[in-house]
Specification:
Blueprint: H1 2-25, H2 36-45, H3 47-59
Helix pairs in contact: 1-2, 2-3
């Protein structure tokens, strides 16, 4: 039960983190889409995965 609550907290934090990043990045046209795939990746792997998604967005 505690694992589920902790994972839900991570999902909520990841959603706010991605939203906050997109608020800043919209000026630079580097917006990472907010979808369930990106949120779960950021929830499981943490902030380095957000950086990886940003680099992936820049390269493509």
């Amino acid at each position: 039960m505690q694992f589920i609550i902790r994972f839900i907290k991570k999902i909520i934090f990841s959603s706010f983190l991605l939203y906050g990043y997109n608020l800043i990045a919209v000026n630079f046209n580097l917006v990472v889409p907010i979808n369930i795939f990106n949120i779960i990746i950021i929830s499981i792997l943490g902030v380095p995965s957000l950086i990886g998604l940003i680099i992936f967005k820049i390269l493509l």
